Amino acid sequence: PDDREMYSNTGIAHLVAISGLHITLLALVAGKLAARAWRCSSRLCLAAPAPLVGAGVGLLLGIFYGLVAGWGIPAQRTVFMLAALFAGQLRGGLMSSWDSFFLALFLAVMLDNWSVLDAGFLLSFGAVGILIFAHQGHLDFIRRALPVIRKAVKAQYAVTIGLVLPTAILFNQHSVVSPLVNALSIPWMSFVSTPLALLGGLLQQDWAARLSADSLALQRQWLLEFDSFDWAVLPLHSQPYWVYAMAGLGCLVLLLPAGLTNRGIGLLLLGFLAWPPARPESGGFWMTVLDVGQGTAIAIQTSKHLLIYDAGPAFNTRSDSSRRVILPWLRQQGHDRPDVFMLSHDDADHSGGAPMLLSKAPPTLFAASIGAEHRLNQLARKQNTGTANCHTLPAWTWDGVLFQPMGLDISPEGNRTLLLKNNQSCVLKISNRHHSLLLTGDIEAASEMQLLAKHGAVALKARVLLAPHHGSKTSSTLAFLNAVGPEHVLIQAGWQNRFGHPHPQVTARYESLGAQWSSTAQHGALRWEFPGGPDSAKVSNALDHRRRYWHLHEKGAQP
User: Fold this and answer.
1) 131: left (phi over 0), alpha (psi -120 to 50) or beta
2) Using an 8 Å Cβ cutoff, are 401 and 432 in contact?
3) In degrees rounded to 5, what are phi and psi of residue 378?
4) Could you tell me the sign of the dihedral formed by the alpha carbons of 514, 516, 521, 527, in that order?
5) Beta strand pairing status for 306-309 and 298-301?
6) Are 461 and 484 in contact (CB under 8 A)?
7) Which among 74, 62, 76, 81 has a CA at the least distance from the CA of 19?
8) In contact, 176 and 231? CB cutoff 8 Å
């Protein structure tokens, strides 16, 4: 995962994958060799032209390489463009680059209609289309012969400008060092690493394979150097459609031939990508219940601050909720890091993404129910992050919004049941003048009763409740629910999870009290926008936001 992140930050992910560049290189070399061998016989040349044979051999080898590589979108695009080249040889006439491009595009969509939803489809065909647009036609009529270096610089400029918008939309970032890194890496990979790897693999030559590995190790050194720069990646948060339209127009202006328009206008239009991100009004707050499967991860935004409550599960040793969900969400919303990261308790479905979040986006304060010498507290201190126990943390106010930790008595002399991890969960109430929210972690019946005894029913009252313990039957007691009096209950649970959350008895209890409930298992991520005034909260979910025409026959997953 760290290598993948480094390749993305330096803008060469297309090189280390099985890209069209590799397939084209092998196909062209094979085609040239086949054509040269074919020309050695006059009888063969009378039977079929050598260029046609070379194109056919290159196409066959490209198909073989593409299939072995997994037949991804870049491989398909390259093979189909090789097929267009072969078709041009068969026709015996001229075939423009646009003819090859659109034929490849048609074949890719015809064979896999859903490929248009793949990011690789947009980036692969988009990059090639940009190169054709920048090189074919208008400039060659003015300057017939451009030096190789000038052509390479122009190609890199065109791709860098042309892919600003797609990378901003898809990845919320753009690699600033990409042009320079590609200028070094493309020839290195094309003429050193890839040929040696192919030679070592196809001919079983260990020396070639070792040299290829050494060349990649050397390349890795300069990649690490470039990736270490703080300015290597420009974060680009999500923007409204009109901003993307203005930025797209700016990219077009910058790609047009010099003299047609003032390129300063293009830079000005491209600058719209720096439009400030949307934030809650003063006194209001937004809550995003992130979809992390069976686990908890919630973001609370005020006009100038951010709190992350729990970090979801770790899915395996290489991936967790922070890498997959929380960190991309932070980039999308324009946040560098949270002001407070509150970890309810150290259970895998709540703390699995905590190490990654503390390392990649260290908060100002890390509050949790864990011991002072716990590994997560030690990691936080290494990142110069303050630490605190959430049960003794005083209340604070951000931008007119009150944050009240509802501490529990978890001393060793207390109730043994309260010493269980679930019952040590941090409980946090967030409220303004008209709206209130209660985050409860995985507390069970014993902690619910202590909250009532220690803080009283009035302090716990909230309009929106995060279901304790994902809607488990060991929580959400009737006395606790009567005290909170929620109008809506939010449940974070995985689809068909093995624990059976939420339990039918618990959801029936919510309904009997007149509370509506929503689950991430049915609706995906949930977004609540609580205004500073008396207006109702604005509610949305991923299911409705991402609905497409092929979903019209669906009613959503049923609990």
Assistant:
1) alpha
2) yes
3) -65, -40
4) negative
5) antiparallel
6) yes
7) 74
8) yes
Can you list the pairs that 245-253 forms with residues at least 24 positions away whose Cβ atoms lie under 8 Å?
246/272, 247/164, 247/165, 247/168, 247/272, 247/273, 248/165, 251/161, 251/162, 251/164, 251/165
| Amino acid identity at 517 | W
pTM of the model: 0.85
Is residue 168 within 8 A of residue 273, CB to CB? The reply is: yes
Phi and psi dihedrals of 465, rounded to 5?
A: -125, 130
How far is residue 200 CA from its own chain's centroid? 35
Which of 463, 488, 430, 170 lies closest to 306 in space, CA to CA?
Answer: 430
Sign of CA dihedral 280, 286, 292, 293: negative
Q: What phi and psi values does residue 165 have, to the nearest 5 degrees?
A: -70, -50
Alpha-carbon dihedral of residues 451, 482, 459, 369, nearest 10 degrees? Answer: 30
Q: Residue 261 gets which letter from DSSP? A: B
Please provide the DSSP assignment of 97-144 as one string: HHHHHHHHHHHHHHH-GGGGGSHHHHHHHHHHHHHHHHHSSHHHHH-S
Closest CA to 134 of 268, 258, 264: 258
DSSP state for residue 275 in the 8-state scheme? P
Residues 6+ apart with CB under 8 A from 508: none
Indicate the angle between helix axes 20-38 and 194-202, nearest 10 degrees: 60
Q: Over its length of 559 residues, how does the chain's per-residue pLDDT go in tens digits? A: 888 889 989 988 877 776 677 788 788 888 999 999 999 998 899 998 898 899 899 999 889 888 887 887 778 888 888 888 888 778 776 677 888 888 888 988 888 888 888 888 888 888 888 888 887 754 444 454 456 677 778 888 888 898 899 999 988 999 999 999 988 888 888 889 888 988 898 888 999 999 999 999 999 999 999 999 989 999 999 999 999 999 999 999 999 887 778 889 999 999 999 999 999 999 999 999 999 999 999 999 999 999 999 999 999 888 899 999 999 999 999 999 999 999 999 999 999 999 999 999 999 999 999 989 999 999 999 999 999 999 999 999 999 999 999 998 866 555 555 557 889 999 999 999 999 999 999 999 999 999 999 999 999 999 999 999 999 999 999 999 999 999 999 999 999 899 999 999 999 999 999 999 999 999 999 999 999 988 999 999 998 887 777 666 655 444 4
Taken in order 139, 141, 146, 148, the sign of the CA dihedral is: positive
What is the Cα–Cα distance from 106 to 57, expressed in whole angstroms? Answer: 23
Sequence-distant (6+) residues with CB within 8 A of 310 are 295, 296, 297, 298, 342, 343, 344, 350, 351, 441
Percent helix, strand, coil in the chain, to 5, is 55, 15, 35
Alpha-carbon distance of 559 to 543, in angstroms, equals 15
Residue 411's alpha-carbon distances to 392, 420, 421, 428, in angstroms, are: 12, 12, 13, 19
